[in-house]
Amino acid sequence: MLDRTDPEGEIAKAAAKYSNWGRWGEDDVRGTVNFLTEVKRREAAALVRRGVSFSLAQSFDMNGPQKGWRRRTNPVHTMLDTGTDAALGNQGFPHGIGGADDVIAMPLQCSTQWDGLGHIFDHGKAWNGRPAERVVTSDGDLVTGIETLAAPVVGRGVLLDVGRVIGADGELPDGFAITEAHLTATAEAHGVAIGSGDLVCVRTGQLARVRRDGWGEYAGGPAPGLSFTTAGWLHRTEIAAIATDTWGFEVRPNEFDDAFQPLHQVAIPNMGLLIGEMWDFEELAADCAADGSYEFLLAAPPLPITGAVGSPVNPLALK
């Protein structure tokens, strides 16, 4: 049982028990993505049978969920050259050729994204026990920048549709804490086993609800999500990464009287776990329910933005 009044103590115990510091050497920059081996990728490639693909990304536009918390805004898309410019002959190109160009300005974690290993610290320590001030500076993440994960994040994806299995009408209510028992029951219902190197996708159904009812407090408000007590499961299963359809991955409000994202504090700097947020599983989930197969090849590389502590991503599931 968690002591709701002692987040500091509970986090410290979990951090010590589930630490992966030194597991892949003192110079490691990939954390749990190390579980995703070449053998695992070959096995994952064999899962493609029908040749269908699904984007697991939300849109990147001004209609997104962000409200400005900690200066996170929705993407601002601006045209630099347009068809109007071309038609009016304003571009200065010869023989009638014209074109369009555009630019986008956005926080890297404003829509579907990965949390990099430099995103969260625990008492001033970054992943693998490094001093946070020597890892992430005004020049960016000098050690575990998201570019270090640009190649390896391809492997077996497994959808755990907890919303459909556990929830009513396919959705979990805000504040619902997903426990290990819920994850295990969902995997059994889907006929899949979670193993080393897997890229686990957890659907709560919250995204479907806010699309129907409006964004509301999706960005930072109450949400279903993983319970702090799943730290042991996340460590024991040796998954490479996990992603949810919610803003913050873990249940909100958090399970302590006074805490902010305590599971992040254990999972990222201590476990080295790659975490994805605000993914869109709706089309994939419908297909999985129709054909009864909840495993697929998942390609989800971050953009190789040098020194970034997170990255937008357009994850592709192939079945």
TrEMBL record:
Q: Which InterPro entries match?
A: KFase/CYL (IPR007325), KFase_sf (IPR037175)
SUPFAM superfamilies, sorted: Putative cyclase (SSF102198)
One of this protein's GO BP terms? L-tryptophan catabolic process to kynurenine
Top-level taxon? Bacteria
- Please give one Pfam family short name: Cyclase
Tell me the GO molecular function terms: arylformamidase activity
Signal sequence coordinates: none
Q: What is this protein called?
A: Putative cyclase
- List the source organism: Actinocorallia herbida
